[in-house]
Amino acid sequence: xxxxxxxxxxxxxxxxxxxxxxxxxxxxxxxxxxxxxxxxxxxxxxxxxxxxxxxxxxxxxxxxxxxxxxxxxxxxxxxxxxxxxxxxxxxxxxxxxxxxxxxxxxxxxxxxxxxxxxxxxxxxxxxxxxxxxxxxxxxxxxxxxxxxxxxxxxxxxxxxxxxxxxxxxxxxxxxxxxxxxxxxxxxxxxxxxxxxxxxxxxxxxxxxxxxxxxxxxxxxxxxxxxxxxxxxxxxxxxxxxxxxxxxxxxxxxxxxxxxxxxxxxxxxxxxxxxxxxxxxxxxxxxxxxxxxxxxxxxx
Length: 299
Known about the structure:
Elements: E1 2-7, H1 12-25, E2 30-35, H2 41-50, E3 53-54, H3 60-69, H4 80-87, E4 99-102, E5 106-108, H5 113-121, E6 126-128, H6 141-148, E7 157-160, H7 167-176, H8 178-184, H9 191-201, H10 210-214, E8 226-228, E9 234-236, E10 239-241, E11 243-245, H11 254-274, H12 276-285, H13 287-298
C-alpha cells in the first residue's frame, strides 16, 4: 500500500516515531516522503534507514497553485511557505493506485491490514477517518451553509481508492472558486478547509467514513476505557485504535508517553545499527528529548 507523508527536519523525531510504528504495525506500507520545504536533509537520511522513498513527482504544479490560492491578501498563517507546504497534501489526489496520506505527527497503534484490504477493493473513491468540526469553515452565513451539509473531516488521514483524477484540472477549478473558498474557510487553517471545500463544493474528496465501516475506534488516547497493551497496540472498549496523534493536552499521560517514547526508542535503535553518525547528529540536535527520556527511566 502506497503511503504519503509530509515531512521536514524540524519534526524529525515525529518521523522517527512514525516510521518505527509503521515497521511494527504496517510492514506492507510503501512509504513516500513529500518534502514540506527545503529543510529536508535529515529526512532523506532517515528515509534511507527505513527504506522509504522521496516523492519525485510534480510538486511545481501544486506549489504554483498554492501561491495563487494563498496570495499576499489571503495568507492563512505567516510565513506563506507554511501554506505551500500544507497544500502539498494534494499529492494524494494524483496517486495512480489506492493510497493513503497520513500526518507525520501520529503513530500507528494497531494492525493496518483491515484498512488496506478495504481500500484495495472499495467502490468508494475517497475515505476519511475522523471529523474536525471546528477547523473547516467560518461562522459566516455561507460557511454555516456549507458546514451543515459537510462531513467536516480531518485531514490527518486521507484514503484514495481506485479513481482517476486530473490534479491540474482540480487546481484550475479551485482557482475559479477562489473568492468563495476564502469567504467560507476557517482563518488560520490550510488543509482542512481546502480538502473539505473540494468535497463539498466541487464533489472531489473523502465522502466515506472508514472508521465506522470497519468498526474501528474513534478514540484518541487517553479516554475512559482506553488501554495500551505490552505489544504497543492501543484499544478502546475492545475496539482497535489504528493510530493516535501526538497528544496535545494529554502529552503527560503515561499511556501516551509509553507509546511515543517507545516508538522513538525503536527509531533510534534502527538508526544506531544503520547510521551511527546520523544518531550523533540527532542526539546533538534533540538533546532535551534525550534528557527527558533518561529522567523518566531513572525515576
